[in-house]
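Milestone 3.1: sequence recovery, worked example.
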């Protein structure tokens, strides 16, 4: 900043009790249905945070902007609606980008609301404001769905309503709205009356994308003639709330259902047609390939869900996808650009009209095929000497109550959970969309905040490695300050365990993967958070005990875990 006075708020516009631009922002968010806001203040955003004193919207404050973005992710998952994320300018806004990339990859609706330098300085560098960037919004355009810069106080209500609708329209995802410092501080009463009605909410109503009827009818014809149909369900099924429609169509077709990581909760494991989610095993890849009709719903079939691009379906592919850019991008076939729930229901109705019903013979064949698949996967694992890892993941699953939300960081135990965790009555949340570190604890805190706003006191579990834990460690202060019931399991293997294993396999030695770590137990206790060290044998019981307290708790498990063999490599070596 070149002039110590140029960036100071105009005190004449911020007299106590005066309604300002920041109030218009929060009034609009409340009218849109926001159930709270997440973020942290900064100099250009002071008008927005001053308005919080006059707003009834609950606030969850983070310590680092990227963690605030992850908190908004967890809050959105629990609240079932758009989560507002309040940011300052420049470094504050840019620090959120990794979290917004995860929200984009996992289709989570986050409305990032960033302050900006005064309007006179937008796009110029003429005034040398603190935090100023010539085009801050350009840094976000490759990450979020929509960017708008508000240049007058009268633009606030409709700009936020439009952004809310875009964030909440399938495929859901993050958006950015920038509001300049002087607009946030401007006297509002002369330009914008209090926002209390339903008009902005109606403007923000999201409509699910509807399919082209002729294409769905053609897909129904193909499915009706299928002898070995398989459904591959992704996160789009979960985001659309289409679990019941998926089960109904699978039962009508007698079709086994394999799920991606993001779609793990799309069909319960105890359902007879569940082929689970061992998608990194060749047996599952071959199971999908063997279908004469493969119905892919709510997945772009990217790197992980295609077993690292080795999946090569032999039969007809039908893909239902709300993201037009992902439709047919990896596998050619019948493409239906639409919401998963709408399309699955329509397919079921069309097949019903054709007289397609569940058949005992087809159902028996499907169940036998699923049983053979899961036995093959189990036998392969049994031959790899991974008893401690399998015992730990199954023990944790049995110890964690069915309705507990679990948030996984990018760590070895999470890689196991992608395939081996049985999701029961709730959502499986993992950072595998974009793959950044530090997701678990802040996302879990955001979820616990969401539970609190809904009048619930359910505990939330976060799982990290020691490397990822260092990214989110500052948010232990939030857990303590807000008394949020989050249990954080840290698997301490001395460094970046996944990268260590990858490098040792590829190069014979690992470089830059070993870390000096704090004493996590003593560090947590210094924040006023209860903490303990556990063992492989007692870890599930320790987690269960901590969850039952409904208080923040840290559990450290010193252990080096191994991954199961990446069986897709056989195909890569063969040139497929």
């Amino acid at each position: 900043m070149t002039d110590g006075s140029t960036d100071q708020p105009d005190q004449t516009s911020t007299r106590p009790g005066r309604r300002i631009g920041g109030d218009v922002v929060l009034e609009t968010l409340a009218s849109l249905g926001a159930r709270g806001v997440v973020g942290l203040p900064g100099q250009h955003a002071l008008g927005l945070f001053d308005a919080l004193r006059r707003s009834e919207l609950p606030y969850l404050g983070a310590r680092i902007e990227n963690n605030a973005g992850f908190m908004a992710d967890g809050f959105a998952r629990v609240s079932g609606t758009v989560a507002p994320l309040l940011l300052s300018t420049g470094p504050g806004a840019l620090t959120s980008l990794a979290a917004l990339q995860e929200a984009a990859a996992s289709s989570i609706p986050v409305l990032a609301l960033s302050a900006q330098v005064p309007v006179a300085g937008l796009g110029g560098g003429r005034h040398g404001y603190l935090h100023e960037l010539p085009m801050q919004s350009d840094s976000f355009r490759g990450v979020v769905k929509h960017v708008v810069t508000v240049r007058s106080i009268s633009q606030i209500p409709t700009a936020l309503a439009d952004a809310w609708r875009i964030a909440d329209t399938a495929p859901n995802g993050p958006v950015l709205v920038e509001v300049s410092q002087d607009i946030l501080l401007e006297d509002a009463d002369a330009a914008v009356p209090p926002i209390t009605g339903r008009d902005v909410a109606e403007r923000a109503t999201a409509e699910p994308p509807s399919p082209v009827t002729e294409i769905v009818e053609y897909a129904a014809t193909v499915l009706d003639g299928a002898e070995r149909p398989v459904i591959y369900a992704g996160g789009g099924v979960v985001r659309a709330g289409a679990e019941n429609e998926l089960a109904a169509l699978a039962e009508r077709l007698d079709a086994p259902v394999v799920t991606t990581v993001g779609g793990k909760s799309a069909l319960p494991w105890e359902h007879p047609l569940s082929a689970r989610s061992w998608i990194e095993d060749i047996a599952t890849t071959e199971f999908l390939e063997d279908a004469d009709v493969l119905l892919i719903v709510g997945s772009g079939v990217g790197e992980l869900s295609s077993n690292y691009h080795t999946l090569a379906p032999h039969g007809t592919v039908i893909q239902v996808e709300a993201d037009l850019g992902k439709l047919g991008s990896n596998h050619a076939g019948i493409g239906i650009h639409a919401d998963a729930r709408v399309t699955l229901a329509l397919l079921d109705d069309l097949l019903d009209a054709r007289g397609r019903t569940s058949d005992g013979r087809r159902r028996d064949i499907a169940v036998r095929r699923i049983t053979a698949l899961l036995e093959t996967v189990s036998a392969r694992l049994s031959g790899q000497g991974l008893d401690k890892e399998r015992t730990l993941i199954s023990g944790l699953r049995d110890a964690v109550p069915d309705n507990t939300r679990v948030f996984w960081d990018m760590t070895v135990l999470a890689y196991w959970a992608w395939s081996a965790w049985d999701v029961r009555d709730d959502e499986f949340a993992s950072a595998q969309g974009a793959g950044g570190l530090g997701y678990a604890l802040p996302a879990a805190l955001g979820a616990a905040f969401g539970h609190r706003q809904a009048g619930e006191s359910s505990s939330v579990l976060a799982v990290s490695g020691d490397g990822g834990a260092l990214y989110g460690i500052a948010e232990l202060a939030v857990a303590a300050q807000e008394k949020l019931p989050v249990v954080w399991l840290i698997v301490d293997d001395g460094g970046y365990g996944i990268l260590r294993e990858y490098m040792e396999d590829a190069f014979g030695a690992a470089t830059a993967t070993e870390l000096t770590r704090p004493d996590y137990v003593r560090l947590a206790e210094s924040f006023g958070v209860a903490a303990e060290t556990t063992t492989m044998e007692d870890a599930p019981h320790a987690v269960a005990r901590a969850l039952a307290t409904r208080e923040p708790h840290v559990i450290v498990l010193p252990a080096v875990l191994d991954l199961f063999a990446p069986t897709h490599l056989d195909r890569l070596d063969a040139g497929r």
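The two ends are 56 Å apart (CA to CA). The CA atoms of residues 83 and 110 lie 5 Å apart.
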